[in-house]
Design goal:
Elements (H helix, E strand, L loop, with lengths): L1 H39 L13 E4 L4 H11 L9 E6 L3 H17 L2 H4 L2 E6 L9 H22 L3 E4 L5 H14 L5 E5 L10 H8 L5 E4 L2 H6 L4 E2 L5
Parallel strand pairs: 1-2, 1-4, 2-3, 4-5, 5-6, 6-7
Helix pairs in contact: 1-6, 2-3, 5-6
């Protein structure tokens, strides 16, 4: 009887400990998330010295054209090394990035411009793919994104709308919460978005994953007050 009671109380004690541990970890994560969100809003005022390793996420078509136009007016010597990532089925975007980088190196010394790297990532879902089969491809894309983020560990992430940016930004946010790596996420909404954010922009805005979101139309600033209206960039 005593052995049975002892066993019962030990199980109750273990259960109480497990509950307290879960509550403690959950509370810590909640406060850590709130801290990350608060600190992210202040990042522009705390610029670290020296060049910043930068991840640039490219999308097909207009997304890539807008991103490359934006990079053309930036001080590229402040953002190096640069890592370009596009979807595994999008070879054209990386070719355009190669051309831009070659042009930069022809205009300045390679050391000034910095090194550049070109990578591809699995898509979560292809156009026309069923939602059922996209579950497996989404998991594969997340695993690939995790591997890339561990390998690159960027200080800055630049994106402007392609769906491939979501798993990368989500992992970057998780890394910040866990204290693994602080990557400042800057999202520039496409000039084509006049009245509402794109799905990628909306997710980053609602989930507060992006440090700064820039919009090019005043209507968007009115609808999404935490966004930064910068006028037409391209």
């Amino acid at each position: 009887m005593e052995n049975g009671s002892s066993c019962f109380f030990s199980k109750v004690g273990f259960l109480n400990f497990a509950i307290l541990l879960i509550i403690g970890v959950s509370t810590f994560l909640l406060f850590r998330i709130l801290y990350v969100i608060y600190r992210s809003s202040k990042q522009l005022h705390n610029r670290p010295p020296g060049p910043l390793s930068t991840l640039i996420i490219l999308g097909s078509g207009g997304h890539t054209a807008e991103m490359l136009n934006l990079l053309a007016v930036m001080q590229m010597d402040r953002f190096k090394p640069r890592y370009y990532i596009a979807a595994a089925t999008d070879n054209m975007s990386l070719q355009k990035a190669h051309v831009m980088e070659d042009t930069l190196k022809n205009k300045a010394e390679a050391e000034t411009v910095g090194t550049s790297h070109f990578m591809q990532i699995y898509r979560s879902r292809e156009v026309g793919q069923s939602y059922l089969t996209s579950v497996g491809t989404t998991l594969a894309a997340l695993a690939h994104a995790l591997w890339l983020m561990i390998k690159i560990r960027p200080q800055v992430i630049l994106c402007n709308g392609p769906g491939t940016c979501i798993p990368l930004c989500a992992i970057a946010f998780i890394f910040k919460v866990l204290g693994i790596r602080w990557s400042s996420i800057f999202y520039v909404e496409s000039i084509a978005r006049v009245k509402r954010l794109s799905l990628s922009g909306l997710l980053l805005y609602k989930l507060r994953m992006a440090d700064q979101i820039f919009v090019q139309w005043p209507q968007l600033k009115s609808k999404y007050p935490r966004a930064n209206y910068v006028g037409r960039l391209m």
